[in-house]
Write a structure and sequence with these properties.
Distance between the termini: 59 Å
Order of helices and strands: HHEEEEEEEEEEEEEEEEEE
Helix content: under 10%
Number of strands: 18
Oligomer: single chain
Radius of gyration: 20 Å
Number of helices: 2
Largest sheet: 14 strands, antiparallel, barrel
Length: about 300
Amino acid sequence: MMRKRFLILCVMSAIPFLSMNAQTASFLNLPDDARDMATGGIKAVGDAARAIDTTVVDASVSYFSWSPKGVGSNIIDADVSYRFNKVAILAQARFNTYGSYPMSDASGVVTGSYKPLEQSIGLGAAYSIIDGLAVSVLAKYVGSGLAPEAKASAFCADVNVVYAVKSLKVGLLAANLGTKLNYSSSSAPLPMLIKAGVQNDFAFGEKFGLQIGLGAGYLAQSPNKAVVVDAGADFRMFDMFSLRAGYHYSTDVKAAPSYMSAGLGFDISMISLSAAYLIASGPVSGTLCATIGVRF
Protein backbone atom coordinates (compact mmCIF):
# COMPACT_ATOMS: atom_id res chain seq x y z
CA MET A 1 0.00 0.00 0.00
CA MET A 2 2.78 2.41 0.92
CA ARG A 3 4.58 1.61 -2.31
CA LYS A 4 1.43 2.23 -4.34
CA ARG A 5 0.88 5.61 -2.70
CA PHE A 6 4.49 6.54 -3.35
CA LEU A 7 4.08 5.67 -7.04
CA ILE A 8 0.96 7.83 -7.28
CA LEU A 9 2.86 10.75 -5.76
CA CYS A 10 5.67 10.29 -8.29
CA VAL A 11 3.35 10.27 -11.27
CA MET A 12 1.38 13.28 -9.97
CA SER A 13 4.64 15.16 -9.58
CA ALA A 14 5.47 14.43 -13.22
CA ILE A 15 2.10 15.63 -14.56
CA PRO A 16 3.17 19.28 -14.95
CA PHE A 17 5.96 18.18 -17.30
CA LEU A 18 3.51 16.15 -19.39
CA SER A 19 0.93 18.92 -19.63
CA MET A 20 3.43 21.61 -20.59
CA ASN A 21 5.19 19.42 -23.12
CA ALA A 22 1.91 18.17 -24.70
CA GLN A 23 3.19 14.59 -24.73
CA THR A 24 6.22 12.63 -23.66
CA ALA A 25 8.92 12.31 -26.32
CA SER A 26 7.79 15.41 -28.21
CA PHE A 27 11.50 16.36 -28.14
CA LEU A 28 11.97 13.87 -31.01
CA ASN A 29 10.42 16.33 -33.47
CA LEU A 30 12.34 19.42 -32.38
CA PRO A 31 14.84 20.91 -34.89
CA ASP A 32 18.00 18.91 -35.55
CA ASP A 33 20.49 21.72 -34.86
CA ALA A 34 20.90 25.49 -34.86
CA ARG A 35 20.82 25.80 -38.64
CA ASP A 36 17.65 23.71 -38.88
CA MET A 37 16.02 25.73 -36.08
CA ALA A 38 16.98 29.06 -37.64
CA THR A 39 15.44 28.10 -41.00
CA GLY A 40 12.09 26.88 -39.66
CA GLY A 41 12.83 23.21 -38.93
CA ILE A 42 11.93 21.78 -42.34
CA LYS A 43 13.66 18.40 -41.67
CA ALA A 44 12.25 16.59 -44.75
CA VAL A 45 15.49 16.96 -46.73
CA GLY A 46 17.45 15.07 -44.11
CA ASP A 47 19.50 11.92 -43.53
CA ALA A 48 19.03 10.43 -47.00
CA ALA A 49 20.82 13.41 -48.57
CA ARG A 50 24.05 12.33 -46.87
CA ALA A 51 24.38 9.42 -49.31
CA ILE A 52 24.42 11.79 -52.31
CA ASP A 53 26.38 14.63 -50.71
CA THR A 54 30.09 15.04 -51.43
CA THR A 55 30.91 15.25 -47.71
CA VAL A 56 32.59 12.16 -46.26
CA VAL A 57 32.33 12.95 -42.53
CA ASP A 58 29.63 15.21 -41.09
CA ALA A 59 29.51 15.51 -37.29
CA SER A 60 27.95 18.03 -34.92
CA VAL A 61 27.00 18.64 -31.29
CA SER A 62 24.13 20.97 -30.39
CA TYR A 63 22.82 22.46 -27.17
CA PHE A 64 19.22 23.69 -26.86
CA SER A 65 17.76 25.80 -24.06
CA TRP A 66 14.22 24.91 -25.09
CA SER A 67 11.13 26.80 -23.92
CA PRO A 68 12.76 28.71 -21.03
CA LYS A 69 9.38 30.28 -20.14
CA GLY A 70 7.60 26.92 -20.20
CA VAL A 71 9.03 23.42 -19.69
CA GLY A 72 12.56 24.80 -19.38
CA SER A 73 14.31 21.75 -20.79
CA ASN A 74 17.98 21.41 -21.74
CA ILE A 75 18.77 19.25 -24.75
CA ILE A 76 22.09 17.86 -25.96
CA ASP A 77 22.11 16.45 -29.49
CA ALA A 78 25.01 14.59 -31.15
CA ASP A 79 24.92 13.58 -34.81
CA VAL A 80 27.53 11.91 -37.04
CA SER A 81 27.59 10.35 -40.50
CA TYR A 82 30.32 8.67 -42.54
CA ARG A 83 29.89 8.19 -46.29
CA PHE A 84 31.73 5.71 -48.49
CA ASN A 85 30.73 5.10 -52.10
CA LYS A 86 26.91 5.02 -52.17
CA VAL A 87 26.38 4.33 -48.46
CA ALA A 88 26.39 6.63 -45.43
CA ILE A 89 26.41 5.25 -41.89
CA LEU A 90 24.30 7.33 -39.47
CA ALA A 91 24.42 7.67 -35.68
CA GLN A 92 22.44 10.06 -33.49
CA ALA A 93 21.82 10.65 -29.80
CA ARG A 94 19.59 13.19 -28.03
CA PHE A 95 19.20 13.75 -24.27
CA ASN A 96 16.41 15.91 -22.89
CA THR A 97 16.45 16.93 -19.20
CA TYR A 98 13.96 18.99 -17.18
CA GLY A 99 14.34 20.84 -13.91
CA SER A 100 14.35 18.82 -10.71
CA TYR A 101 11.19 18.45 -8.64
CA PRO A 102 10.85 17.35 -4.97
CA MET A 103 10.12 13.73 -4.06
CA SER A 104 7.91 12.87 -1.08
CA ASP A 105 7.19 9.70 0.85
CA ALA A 106 3.70 8.38 1.64
CA SER A 107 3.35 10.79 4.60
CA GLY A 108 4.22 13.83 2.47
CA VAL A 109 7.72 14.33 3.84
CA VAL A 110 10.19 15.53 1.19
CA THR A 111 12.89 12.88 0.82
CA GLY A 112 14.91 14.27 -2.09
CA SER A 113 14.55 15.40 -5.68
CA TYR A 114 14.30 13.83 -9.13
CA LYS A 115 15.37 15.14 -12.54
CA PRO A 116 13.24 13.75 -15.42
CA LEU A 117 15.16 12.54 -18.45
CA GLU A 118 14.16 11.53 -21.96
CA GLN A 119 16.62 10.18 -24.50
CA SER A 120 16.85 8.85 -28.03
CA ILE A 121 19.71 6.81 -29.49
CA GLY A 122 19.69 5.92 -33.18
CA LEU A 123 21.74 3.97 -35.70
CA GLY A 124 21.04 3.59 -39.40
CA ALA A 125 22.19 4.00 -42.98
CA ALA A 126 21.49 5.97 -46.13
CA TYR A 127 21.85 4.50 -49.61
CA SER A 128 22.06 6.14 -53.04
CA ILE A 129 19.81 4.00 -55.24
CA ILE A 130 20.59 5.86 -58.46
CA ASP A 131 22.23 9.20 -59.20
CA GLY A 132 20.29 11.83 -57.29
CA LEU A 133 17.94 9.44 -55.46
CA ALA A 134 18.64 8.17 -51.94
CA VAL A 135 16.78 6.58 -49.04
CA SER A 136 17.67 6.31 -45.35
CA VAL A 137 16.41 4.32 -42.37
CA LEU A 138 17.31 5.27 -38.81
CA ALA A 139 16.33 2.84 -36.02
CA LYS A 140 15.92 4.51 -32.61
CA TYR A 141 15.61 3.51 -28.97
CA VAL A 142 13.54 6.01 -26.98
CA GLY A 143 13.56 6.15 -23.18
CA SER A 144 11.45 8.26 -20.84
CA GLY A 145 11.94 8.61 -17.09
CA LEU A 146 9.38 10.96 -15.56
CA ALA A 147 9.81 9.59 -12.04
CA PRO A 148 11.78 6.78 -10.34
CA GLU A 149 8.83 4.40 -10.81
CA ALA A 150 7.36 5.99 -13.93
CA LYS A 151 9.73 4.91 -16.68
CA ALA A 152 9.15 3.54 -20.16
CA SER A 153 10.93 2.73 -23.41
CA ALA A 154 10.00 2.30 -27.06
CA PHE A 155 11.53 1.49 -30.44
CA CYS A 156 10.86 3.36 -33.64
CA ALA A 157 12.30 4.27 -37.02
CA ASP A 158 12.68 7.31 -39.28
CA VAL A 159 12.43 6.79 -43.05
CA ASN A 160 13.62 9.54 -45.40
CA VAL A 161 13.67 9.72 -49.22
CA VAL A 162 15.49 12.52 -51.06
CA TYR A 163 15.71 13.27 -54.77
CA ALA A 164 18.24 15.84 -56.02
CA VAL A 165 18.55 17.34 -59.48
CA LYS A 166 21.11 20.12 -59.98
CA SER A 167 20.55 22.62 -57.13
CA LEU A 168 17.08 21.32 -56.20
CA LYS A 169 16.34 18.75 -53.48
CA VAL A 170 12.94 17.23 -52.70
CA GLY A 171 12.40 15.12 -49.59
CA LEU A 172 9.79 13.01 -47.83
CA LEU A 173 10.10 12.05 -44.15
CA ALA A 174 8.17 9.60 -41.97
CA ALA A 175 9.45 9.90 -38.39
CA ASN A 176 8.88 8.04 -35.12
CA LEU A 177 7.09 5.01 -36.56
CA GLY A 178 7.07 2.41 -33.79
CA THR A 179 5.83 1.14 -30.47
CA LYS A 180 4.25 3.02 -27.55
CA LEU A 181 5.89 4.19 -24.35
CA ASN A 182 4.37 1.85 -21.75
CA TYR A 183 4.48 3.19 -18.20
CA SER A 184 3.33 1.19 -15.17
CA SER A 185 -0.24 2.48 -15.32
CA SER A 186 -0.58 4.13 -18.76
CA SER A 187 0.87 4.23 -22.26
CA ALA A 188 1.67 7.03 -24.69
CA PRO A 189 2.16 6.78 -28.47
CA LEU A 190 5.24 8.37 -29.97
CA PRO A 191 4.67 11.66 -31.86
CA MET A 192 4.45 10.52 -35.49
CA LEU A 193 5.46 13.06 -38.12
CA ILE A 194 4.87 12.82 -41.90
CA LYS A 195 6.46 15.63 -43.86
CA ALA A 196 7.45 16.74 -47.37
CA GLY A 197 9.92 19.48 -48.20
CA VAL A 198 11.89 21.15 -50.96
CA GLN A 199 15.15 23.13 -50.97
CA ASN A 200 16.88 25.04 -53.75
CA ASP A 201 20.25 26.79 -53.91
CA PHE A 202 20.81 30.00 -55.85
CA ALA A 203 24.26 31.38 -56.63
CA PHE A 204 25.02 35.09 -57.12
CA GLY A 205 28.51 35.07 -58.52
CA GLU A 206 31.25 33.37 -56.50
CA LYS A 207 30.76 35.29 -53.25
CA PHE A 208 27.07 35.02 -52.43
CA GLY A 209 24.52 32.24 -52.26
CA LEU A 210 20.95 31.73 -51.07
CA GLN A 211 19.17 28.53 -50.05
CA ILE A 212 15.38 28.63 -49.73
CA GLY A 213 13.36 25.80 -48.22
CA LEU A 214 9.66 25.01 -47.84
CA GLY A 215 8.03 22.16 -45.94
CA ALA A 216 4.59 20.90 -44.90
CA GLY A 217 3.41 17.92 -42.92
CA TYR A 218 1.09 16.24 -40.46
CA LEU A 219 1.91 15.73 -36.79
CA ALA A 220 0.02 13.17 -34.68
CA GLN A 221 1.03 14.00 -31.11
CA SER A 222 -1.67 12.37 -28.96
CA PRO A 223 -4.14 13.66 -27.95
CA ASN A 224 -3.49 16.54 -30.36
CA LYS A 225 -2.96 16.63 -34.12
CA ALA A 226 -1.68 19.43 -36.30
CA VAL A 227 -0.75 20.45 -39.82
CA VAL A 228 2.64 22.15 -39.82
CA VAL A 229 4.12 24.44 -42.49
CA ASP A 230 7.72 25.70 -42.57
CA ALA A 231 9.68 28.23 -44.61
CA GLY A 232 13.31 29.24 -44.28
CA ALA A 233 16.19 31.04 -45.97
CA ASP A 234 19.96 30.84 -45.56
CA PHE A 235 21.96 33.69 -47.14
CA ARG A 236 25.65 32.87 -47.46
CA MET A 237 28.46 35.41 -47.95
CA PHE A 238 32.08 34.84 -49.00
CA ASP A 239 31.71 31.11 -48.33
CA MET A 240 32.11 31.93 -44.64
CA PHE A 241 29.20 33.87 -43.07
CA SER A 242 25.51 32.97 -43.05
CA LEU A 243 22.38 34.91 -42.12
CA ARG A 244 19.31 32.74 -41.52
CA ALA A 245 15.62 33.24 -40.89
CA GLY A 246 12.53 31.06 -40.87
CA TYR A 247 8.93 30.54 -39.81
CA HIS A 248 7.24 27.45 -38.39
CA TYR A 249 3.42 27.39 -38.34
CA SER A 250 1.21 24.86 -36.55
CA THR A 251 -2.59 24.61 -36.62
CA ASP A 252 -2.60 23.35 -33.01
CA VAL A 253 -0.21 24.97 -30.54
CA LYS A 254 -0.84 22.14 -28.05
CA ALA A 255 0.71 19.71 -30.53
CA ALA A 256 3.51 22.01 -31.69
CA PRO A 257 4.23 25.74 -31.22
CA SER A 258 4.35 28.34 -33.98
CA TYR A 259 7.37 30.61 -34.08
CA MET A 260 9.66 32.84 -36.10
CA SER A 261 13.36 32.08 -36.03
CA ALA A 262 16.65 33.77 -36.79
CA GLY A 263 20.27 32.69 -36.72
CA LEU A 264 23.89 33.15 -37.71
CA GLY A 265 26.52 30.81 -39.07
CA PHE A 266 30.30 30.98 -39.36
CA ASP A 267 32.54 28.53 -41.22
CA ILE A 268 36.31 28.33 -41.14
CA SER A 269 38.10 25.47 -42.83
CA MET A 270 36.28 22.27 -41.75
CA ILE A 271 34.66 23.76 -38.63
CA SER A 272 31.24 25.42 -38.47
CA LEU A 273 29.62 27.42 -35.66
CA SER A 274 25.90 28.23 -35.63
CA ALA A 275 23.42 29.90 -33.29
CA ALA A 276 19.64 30.29 -33.47
CA TYR A 277 16.91 32.11 -31.54
CA LEU A 278 13.12 31.68 -31.49
CA ILE A 279 10.74 34.63 -31.58
CA ALA A 280 7.23 33.78 -30.37
CA SER A 281 4.48 34.93 -28.00
CA GLY A 282 4.23 31.60 -26.16
CA PRO A 283 6.51 29.61 -23.84
CA VAL A 284 9.03 28.79 -26.59
CA SER A 285 9.91 32.47 -26.84
CA GLY A 286 13.59 32.97 -26.09
CA THR A 287 14.62 29.43 -26.99
CA LEU A 288 18.31 29.29 -27.90
CA CYS A 289 20.44 26.76 -29.76
CA ALA A 290 24.18 26.59 -30.43
CA THR A 291 25.90 24.06 -32.69
CA ILE A 292 29.52 23.21 -33.42
CA GLY A 293 30.23 20.91 -36.34
CA VAL A 294 32.95 19.51 -38.54
CA ARG A 295 32.67 18.44 -42.20
CA PHE A 296 35.23 17.10 -44.66
